[in-house]
Structure prediction request, 76 residues.
Amino acid sequence: MYIEIREKNAKFYVLIRHDDPKHKGVAQFASRSKEEATNVGRQFAKQHKCLIRYTSGGIETPEIPTPSPDEPLIEG
Prediction:
């Protein structure tokens, strides 16, 4: 497992990647600020005790998970 910070079209995405190629990377965070994305990536890396990989470009833009309609929105 590792954290990937990907830059694509002036946006920075933070993805949690698994070593298994069956798992598709889904962006957990997106920002136009490189510093903000780096800070979030560091937090994820500390939580999951793994490394960070920085990449740019890529074939497709990472998808961002959306909450299901049944899930209540929680802000805190």
In short: The radius of gyration is 13 Å. Residues 34-48 form the longest helix (15 residues).
